[in-house]
Design brief:
Elements: E1 3-7, E2 28-29, E3 32-33, H1 34-41, E4 46-50, H2 53-62, E5 67-68, H3 71-74, E6 79-83, E7 86-88, E8 100-104, E9 107-113, H4 118-123, H5 126-135, E10 138-141, E11 144-146, H6 150-155, H7 157-168, E12 173-174, E13 182-184, E14 190-192, E15 197-198, E16 203-205, E17 211-213, E18 218-219, E19 224-226, E20 229-231, E21 236-242, E22 246-248, E23 253-259, E24 262-263, E25 268-269, E26 274-276, E27 279-280, E28 285-286, E29 291-292, E30 303-306, E31 309-312, E32 320-322, E33 327-328, E34 333-334, E35 338-340, E36 345-346, E37 356-357, E38 361-364, E39 367-370, H8 373-388, H9 396-408, H10 410-434
Parallel strand pairs: 1-4, 1-6, 4-5, 8-10, 12-14, 13-16, 14-17, 15-18, 16-19, 17-20, 18-21, 19-21, 20-22, 21-23, 22-24, 23-25, 23-26, 24-27, 27-32, 28-33, 29-34, 32-35, 33-36, 35-37, 36-38
Antiparallel strand pairs: 2-3, 6-9, 7-11, 8-9, 30-31, 38-39
Length: 439
């Protein structure tokens, strides 16, 4: 098949807060996003994408080589549609039958769209259209994994890091390594780009999995990295203790202890503090000693509030999921299974903070406050400054998307405020009953 288009189905918002500003297939698992992995493995094809309409303008800016929501492009020739949240088994796509639909967990993940079927996509949501098309084809169960929630990215990250390393590496490279640095394990499990810098007294432990250090990355003295792990382009590690199963994306700055996390790109965790089993979106800044819990004291399954709805993860180890442009202040403590929406301000309260922080919110002394319009303006200006410090422009299209996301998430903020008010009204009489009587 010479033409492929990735699509988002109706489960895209189940990855909140990570997908408010990006398609599901731009989420990272392993060394790269789901889209990048497919494009690396499948060459010599034309690529397109079908995304939520509110994302289309920004996504066209970010991916000018892709035909985005372009019905005329889809109508030119048969196109293989691939569900963007499928960790695909590419071998099953090598000779795809146009009369079948590939199924994983009772969900269509790949089918060929014929030009005369394009009007069906334009007339209704992509999810409904895909299911209608699937009913007209023979179902074939295929391999691969279907992601459905944010924690799935963490659960599969280690295996994807190992698989990605095996696909990309040609021969061991160890340039610019100070002789006083140590590499534990086989050289075949380590790739260090010739432009990367490894200081004295850095330890790279590849005994349990491969380590990839990308171009112009730098590892400061007394940093320790355990594989499987990926250190992205221009990432900087400052006396960091990086445990196995971690992805540090491009242009991130990282210190302290990190375990089985994904830092998407352009995220700052410069200072000490623990980050475990979490996903951090771009332009997040975690203040000094910001720490999250990723395991409950009773070892029970962790529930995560996604868009305000508590979802049982089925996992004992789940940390935090932090949306774009969010900032935490010094000494912020995040509870097990915390969800923090985009462009929020988290200030410490001397105790564990609320598990659900809606997008465009502020936490102060443990209480939630919704950002007003003037707060949104300040947040956008801060984003413009932060991005400019990394030579990235906050374009008018990005600004329009942030403003639209602010309006779209108003109900989530209001519901969270209502729940907080209810809790406070219930707690007040109880506090009065326990207050000591003065004679």
């Amino acid at each position: 098949m010479q033409r492929i288009a990735l699509f988002e189905d109706d489960a895209a918002l189940q990855f909140a807060p990570l997908t408010l500003l990006r398609p599901t297939f731009e989420l990272v698992c392993g060394q790269c996003s789901l889209r990048e992995r497919l494009m690396r493995q499948i060459s010599m094809v034309e690529w397109g994408a079908i995304v939520r309409e509110e994302l289309a303008e920004v996504y066209r800016e970010e991916q000018p080589a892709l035909a985005v929501n372009d019905m005329s492009w889809l109508a030119e020739s048969p196109t293989l549609l691939i569900n963007g949240r499928w960790l695909a088994d590419v071998e099953s796509l090598s000779d795809f039958n146009p009369e079948t639909v590939a199924i994983v967990e009772n969900t269509p993940v790949a089918l060929v769209l014929h030009p005369d079927e394009v009007p069906l996509l334009a007339a209704q949501t992509i999810g409904i259209a895909i299911h209608q098309l699937a009913r007209s084809r023979q179902s074939v169960t295929v391999d691969g994994k279907l992601l459905s929630r944010p924690w799935n990215l963490i659960e599969h990250n280690s295996e994807q890091l190992i698989a990605d390393f095996g696909r990309r590496i040609t021969r061991p490279t160890k340039a610019n390594i100070d002789p006083r640095a140590a590499i534990l394990g086989s050289d075949d499990n380590v790739f260090i780009h010739p432009t990367a810098d490894i200081d004295p007294f850095v330890v790279i432990d590849a005994r349990s999995g491969p380590v990839w250090v990308d171009e112009r990355a730098s590892l400061q003295a007394f940093t320790r990295v355990e594989g499987p792990c990926f250190i992205g382009r221009e990432a900087q590690l400052f006396r960091a203790n990086v445990k196995a199963g971690t992805t540090i994306g491009p242009v991130c700055r990282v210190g302290g202890e990190i375990e089985e996390c994904i830092l998407h790109s352009h995220a700052n965790k410069y200072h000490d503090g623990f980050l475990g089993h979490g996903y951090v979106c771009p332009w997040v800044n975690l203040g000094a000693l910001t720490t999250n819990s990723d395991l409950k004291n009773d070892y029970s399954s962790v529930k995560v509030p996604l868009s305000g709805e508590s979802i049982d993860s089925g996992s004992k180890k789940v940390g935090c999921f932090i949306g774009d442009h969010t900032k935490t202040a010094i000494g912020s403590f995040l509870n097990t299974g915390t969800s923090v929406g985009a462009m929020s301000l988290v200030l410490p309260g001397g105790e564990l903070l609320p598990k659900h922080v809606p997008p465009f919110s502020r936490i102060w002394h443990g209480s939630l406050d919704s950002l007003a319009t003037d707060g949104l303006e300040a947040g956008i200006e801060t984003a413009r400054i932060a991005m400019g410090r990394r030579d990235v422009e906050l374009t008018p299209a990005m600004e329009r998307l942030l403003r639209l996301a602010f309006r779209q998430t108003q109900d989530e903020r209001q519901h969270a405020l209502d729940r907080q008010a209810t809790r406070h009204s219930v707690a007040a009489p109880q506090q009065a009953l326990t207050r000591p009587i003065r004679l």
